[in-house]
TrEMBL record:
Belongs to the glycosyl hydrolase 32 family. Keywords: Glycosidase, Hydrolase. Residues 12-317 form the Glycosyl hydrolase family 32 N-terminal domain. Residues 372-462 form the Glycosyl hydrolase family 32 C-terminal domain. GO terms for cellular component: cytoplasm. This is Glycoside hydrolase family 32 protein. SMART domains: Glyco_32.
């Protein structure tokens, strides 16, 4: 018999029990990072969707608050977003105490089963106590499905305040495109524009959009995230992005670019969006660390589904001039880094102490290394039970890789055992890499976050040995804290 699984992550958010998918309602409010999530509180498989709720003061330690919104006779509570209505535009609550307002997709499964054309609408809920209790706005959904051709999938509203227009913007996934709506009061929505039909990847329907500005040395640019269920670079679900300009009503993608761009080339980063209301304006992102291909089969218990580490997003230009391309780069949020534990081993320390350091860290670690991009190297983790996880750089193909084929439990789905890679985006000989190894995941951030791989792994015991193959120059191992 296998040992009892110990796959509860240390740093990554998981619900105490049951099924979780997309992050929802990400809003910073009164010193706390609120994280709502698609939740089925009676089962480890997807079902009638609720919003679960957790919050954190530091993006490291999460307090779970249980169910925030449950399905009603009108339908399930699908993905959506939340904002602080600071100017009290909605008229909900009182002027002295502005409400948190969430828009979510009301999914009427009975109507879908009955073959009706419209079964997804946008509905409003609000909280007057900072996110604890939620009331639904009485009456019909604030944005009913128009029922025109192509609006069968009509979901995942993401809200943003547009100061220039003094209006709210909603980005909404509508089958093969993103629709933008605006409202002065979060309740009366007007269609502004559509983006994306014929652009980007379309192997699955578009889901979970997010549109936000980022500063660059050349001025502000806007990024549009779009998730799609299948057709990702590692197989199955993934999140693509577009870079361009937003004029208040329309998003215009820059024509430049090598085709489809992905925020993460690994198999396990889906439906991610950014927090609203972050005081310093950073774009702080979190994704569902999973893939619809095998999410229902994961061997974890009593929960199923985890989030990625919270990440900060930035734009960097790779290559100058007309050949240059904006890359959306992700690095672990500074809050996560601030709480790391002590350095347990670094290059120069006795070689034989490396394994003890990894064991002292419980097989979980924050690893950084430098290497020479002209030579291949790999880090091989093993646990004495024959499980091996290999992570590294292939200088011949110019790719970083994570190979989880032999990394423990893989048999629960045929798509799981695989090697994934991401092209190196940086040029030059100096290569830097950060690896975040948690109980059941590994995240690789290279080239200042321009090359990213996120991968779940289920070793049958914690990693206890680390073998470096090839010239790894400066290796440092820190406890996750
Ligand atoms: C994305 C998604 C969303 C939907 C939700 C339902 O993973 O399919 O489009 O709102 O999950 O749980």
């Amino acid at each position: 018999a296998l040992p009892t699984p110990h796959w509860r992550p240390r740093l990554h958010f998981t619900p105490p029990a049951w099924w979780m998918n997309d992050p929802n309602g990400l809003v910073w409010h009164a010193g706390r990072w609120h994280l709502f999530y698609q939740f089925h509180p009676h089962s480890r498989v997807w079902g009638p969707m609720h919003w679960g709720h957790a919050s954190s003061s530091d993006l490291r330690v999460w307090q779970d608050h249980g169910v925030a919104l449950a399905p009603t006779a009108a339908g399930m509570v699908f993905s959506g977003s939340a904002v602080l209505d600071a100017a009290h535009t909605s008229g909900l609550g009182s002027a002295g105490a502005p409400p948190l307002v969430a828009l979510y997709t009301l999914h009427d499964e009975a109507a879908a089963q009955a073959g009706q054309a419209t079964f997804q609408h946008q509905a409003l809920a609000y909280s007057l106590d900072g996110g604890g209790q939620w009331q639904r706005l009485p009456g019909p959904p604030v944005l009913p499905n128009p029922g025109t051709p192509g609006t069968r999938d009509f979901r995942d509203p993401k809200l943003r305040w547009l100061p220039e227009r003094q209006r709210w913007l909603m980005a909404l996934a509508v089958g093969d495109h993103i629709a933008f709506y605006s409202a002065a009061d979060l309740r009366h929505w007007v269609h502004e524009s559509d983006f994306g039909a014929g652009l980007g990847a379309h192997d699955g329907v578009w889901e979970c959009p997010d549109l936000f500005p980022l500063p660059t040395p050349e001025g502000e640019l806007w990024v549009l995230l779009v998730s799609l269920v299948k057709g990702g670079p590692a197989g199955g679900s993934a999140t693509q992005y577009f870079v361009g300009h937003f004029d208040g009503t329309h998003f215009h993608a820059d024509p430049e670019g090598p085709g489809v761009r992905w925020i993460d080339h690994g198999p396990d980063n889906y439906a991610g969006v950014t927090w609203a209301g972050v005081p310093d304006g950073r774009a702080v992102f979190i994704g569902w660390m999973n893939n619809w291909d095998y999410a229902r089969e994961l061997p974890t218990a009593p929960w199923r589904g985890a989030m990625t580490l919270p990440r900060e997003l930035q734009l960097r230009r790779s290559g100058a001039g007309p050949g240059g391309v904006w890359r959306l780069c992700s690095t672990p949020a500074r809050e996560v880094q601030a709480g790391l534990g002590p350095v347990l081993w670094q290059t120069g320390d006795p070689a034989e102490a490396l394994n003890f350091a990894l064991q002292a860290a419980g097989g979980c670690a924050w690893l950084t290394c430098q290497a020479d991009a002209r030579e291949s190297f790999s880090l091989l983790f093993d646990n004495g039970l024959g499980d091996g996880l290999r992570v590294g750089f292939d200088a011949v193909d110019g790719v970083y890789f994570i190979d989880r084929r032999l990394a423990g439990e893989t048999g629960f789905h045929p798509a799981f055992a695989a090697r994934h890679e991401v092209p190196r985006w940086a040029a030059g000989e100096a290569l830097t890499l950060t690896l975040v190894l948690d109980t059941s995941s590994v995240e690789l951030f290279a080239d200042e976050g321009c090359s990213v791989l996120t991968s779940q792994v289920f070793p049958r015991a914690p990693w206890g040995r680390l073998l470096c193959q090839g010239p790894v120059q400066g290796l440092r191992l820190q406890a996750l804290g």
